[in-house]
Inverse folding.
C-alpha cells in the first residue's frame, strides 16, 4: 500500500520521468530485499510511467492506470505477487491516493518535497538585489547624517551675555557689584537688551532701565557692545542656516539616490515576463521559413501587453530579410501587430545580427509647439519636450522659468533636460519630479525656479496622467466641449519637499491636449476665461493638425494681450486610434 502511494505521488508531482524513476527505484529495493522479482520491478516501473502520462487527465485515471497495469500483468504474465492480498493492498494504496488532500500533492508540507536548485539567473538576480538594498541603506544612513538639523543650544545666549560682560565690565570698578551682588538683575537687563536688538535691530542708551543709566559709568559703551555682539551673532546664524540648508539638500539628494536603488530592486523582479512557449513556437516557425536563429527571446510587460521579441540571426548583408521575411513570421506567430525597432539598421553582435520587434500600441500621439519670447531679441524663457518610449508611453512636458530672458530659459531648459534624462532611464515620474526640485533648489541663491507641466500617456489603453508643479491649467478638447485639468501647487525649486498631485483621465479617439504657460492664460484674462475662449472661438475651427492649432492659439493670445507680454508657449497634441 505504501509503495503504491509513494509511487503515485511521485508520478503526480514529477510526471512521466518521476513516476518511472520512482517505480524502478521501489522495484529494485524490493528485489534486493528478496520480497519481489523482476516481474514486480517491471510492473512498478511501467505503472509509474503510465500514471505520469495520465496525470493531466486527473487523479482517477492516473491511479486506475497504475492498478490496471498490475492486474493485467497478474493475469497475462508471470506470477507477480505471492498472493492476491498484495494486489488488493496495491489497489488500496491507489484508492488512498485519490483521497489525499491537494496540499500534500502540491508539495506544501507533503510527504516529501524535492529541493529544486535555483538557476544561475535567479541566484545572480537575488545577489544583485541584496547588494542594491545594502547600497540603498547606506545612502539613507548618509542622508540622516547630512540632513540632521542642529538644535539651538541654550549656552549661546549665556555666551553672548558673557561676551558683553567681558568686553565692557571686566576693567570696571562696579563689575563686582553688578555681576556678583546684583547678578540676576544685571543678567536680566542684558538679556532684555539683546531681545531689543532682535526686534529693532539695535538698542540705545535711552532704552536701558533708569536704574542702570544712573549706576553704570559705561552705559554708552555697554549699548554699543550689545549691538556689535548681537550683529555678529546674527551673521553667524545666517551662515549657519545656509550651511544647514546645504546639508539638508545633500541629505535629500543622498536619500533620493537610496530610493532609486531600492526602486531598482523592485523593478528587477517585476520588469517583464519571459514567454517560453512563444519562444519555442517562434523558433520552430522561423526554422520552417528557412531562417536559422541563434537566440530567441520573447518577453511581455505586466498586464499582458507590450510584447517584445529579440532575435539573433545570421547577418543578411543588407538583403532586407529582416522586414520581408522575419517580421511577417513574428506577427503571425504572436498574433499581434509587431513593429521592428530601428528599421534598415543591423545591430551586429559577435557573428550575428540582433533584431528587436515590439508590439505596436493601439493609439498614437502627434505633438507640435508654438512659442514667442516676451522681450524682443531675447530667448524665450519657456521650454517644451515630446518623448515617445519603446514601452508605449508618450510624454508631453512644458516648463516656464521665472521671469524672461536668458536666466528663465536656462532654468526651464535645465528642468526639461533633467526630465528627459530621467524618463529615458526609466525612473518613475514622481521620483523624477523630486530630483528636479532638488537640483533647482541648489541654485536658490540665484532665486530662480521653474514650473513643470507633465502629461504622460499610455498608448496601449489611453490612460493619461497629469502632474503639475506651479503650472497653469491644461485643457482637453473633446468634441464640442473643453475639459480643464487644474492643480494648485508651487513651482520646482522653492521648497525642499514638493507635493506631487496627479490627475488621471482616460483619453478618447480624437482628443486634443493643450499644455500652456501662464503667458497664454494671462493674455486671455485667466484660466477660466481661457477655457471659455477655447469653447467659443477655438473649437469651431476644427483643427486637425496640432501645429495649426498651436499657432492659432498663440496668435490669438498675442492679440488679446493688454499688458507687457510674457513668454508664451502652446504645446498641442492630437490623440488618435490607429486603424487595425
Amino acid at each position: 500500500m505504501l509503495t503504491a502511494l509513494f509511487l503515485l505521488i511521485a508520478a503526480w508531482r514529477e510526471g512521466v520521468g518521476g513516476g518511472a524513476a520512482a517505480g524502478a527505484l521501489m522495484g529494485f529495493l524490493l528485489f534486493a530485499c528478496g520480497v519481489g522479482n523482476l516481474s514486480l520491478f517491471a510492473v512498478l516501473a511501467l505503472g509509474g510511467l503510465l500514471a505520469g502520462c495520465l496525470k493531466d487527465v486527473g487523479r482517477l485515471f492516473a491511479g486506475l492506470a497504475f492498478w490496471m497495469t498490475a492486474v493485467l500483468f497478474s493475469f497475462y504474465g508471470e506470477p507477480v505477487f505471492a498472493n492476491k492480498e498484495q494486489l488488493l493492498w496495491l489497489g488500496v494504496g491507489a484508492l488512498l491516493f485519490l483521497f489525499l488532500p491537494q496540499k500534500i500533492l502540491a508539495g506544501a508540507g507533503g510527504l516529501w518535497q524535492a529541493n529544486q536548485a535555483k538557476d544561475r539567473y535567479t541566484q545572480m538576480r537575488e545577489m544583485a538585489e541584496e547588494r542594491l538594498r545594502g547600497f540603498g541603506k547606506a545612502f539613507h544612513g548618509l542622508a540622516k547624517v547630512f540632513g540632521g538639523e542642529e538644535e539651538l543650544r541654550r549656552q549661546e545666549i549665556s555666551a553672548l551675555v558673557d561676551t558683553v560682560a567681558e568686553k565692557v565690565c571686566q576693567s570696571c570698578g562696579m563689575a563686582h557689584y553688578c555681576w556678583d551682588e546684583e547678578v540676576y538683575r544685571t543678567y536680566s537687563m542684558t538679556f532684555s537688551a539683546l531681545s531689543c536688538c532682535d526686534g529693532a535691530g539695535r538698542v540705545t542708551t535711552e532704552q536701558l532701565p533708569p536704574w542702570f543709566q544712573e549706576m553704570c559709568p559705561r552705559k554708552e559703551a555697554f549699548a554699543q557692545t550689545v549691538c556689535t555682539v548681537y550683529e555678529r551673532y546674527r551673521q553667524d546664524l545666517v551662515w549657519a542656516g545656509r550651511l544647514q540648508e546645504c546639508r539638508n539638500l545633500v541629505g535629500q539628494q543622498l536619500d533620493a539616490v537610496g530610493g532609486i536603488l531600492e526602486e531598482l530592486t523592485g523593478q528587477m523582479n517585476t520588469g517583464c515576463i519571459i514567454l517560453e512557449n512563444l519562444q519555442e513556437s517562434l523558433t520552430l516557425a522561423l526554422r520552417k521559413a528557412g531562417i536559422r536563429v541563434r537566440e530567441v527571446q520573447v518577453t511581455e510587460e505586466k498586464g499582458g501587453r507590450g510584447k517584445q521579441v529579440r532575435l539573433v540571426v545570421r547577418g543578411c548583408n543588407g538583403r532586407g530579410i529582416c522586414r520581408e521575411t522575419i517580421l511577417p513570421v513574428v506577427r503571425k506567430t504572436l498574433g499581434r501587430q509587431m513593429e521592428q525597432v530601428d528599421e534598415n539598421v543591423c545591430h551586429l553582435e559577435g557573428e550575428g545580427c540582433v533584431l528587436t520587434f515590439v508590439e505596436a500600441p493601439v493609439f498614437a500621439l502627434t505633438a507640435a509647439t508654438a512659442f514667442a519670447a516676451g522681450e524682443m531679441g531675447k530667448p524665450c524663457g519657456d521650454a517644451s519636450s515630446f518623448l515617445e518610449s519603446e514601452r508605449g508611453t508618450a510624454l508631453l512636458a512644458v516648463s516656464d522659468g521665472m521671469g524672461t530672458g536668458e536666466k528663465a530659459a536656462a532654468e526651464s531648459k535645465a528642468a526639461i533636460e533633467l526630465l528627459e534624462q530621467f524618463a529615458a532611464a526609466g525612473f518613475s515620474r514622481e521620483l523624477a519630479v523630486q530630483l528636479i526640485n532638488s537640483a533647482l533648489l541648489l541654485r536658490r541663491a540665484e532665486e530662480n525656479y521653474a514650473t513643470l507641466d507633465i502629461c504622460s500617456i499610455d498608448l496601449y489603453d489611453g490612460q493619461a496622467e497629469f502632474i503639475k508643479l506651479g503650472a497653469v491649467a491644461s485643457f482637453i478638447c473633446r468634441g464640442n466641449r473643453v475639459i480643464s485639468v487644474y492643480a494648485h501647487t508651487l513651482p520646482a525649486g522653492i521648497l525642499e519637499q514638493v507635493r506631487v498631485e496627479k490627475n488621471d483621465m482616460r483619453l478618447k479617439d480624437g482628443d486634443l491636449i493643450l499644455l500652456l504657460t501662464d503667458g497664454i492664460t494671462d493674455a486671455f484674462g485667466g484660466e477660466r476665461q481661457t477655457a471659455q475662449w477655447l469653447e467659443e472661438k477655438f473649437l469651431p475651427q476644427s483643427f486637425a493638425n496640432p501645429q495649426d492649432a498651436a499657432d492659432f492659439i498663440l496668435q490669438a493670445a498675442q492679440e488679446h494681450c493688454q499688458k507687457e507680454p510674457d513668454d508664451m508657449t502652446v504645446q498641442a497634441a492630437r490623440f488618435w486610434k490607429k486603424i487595425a
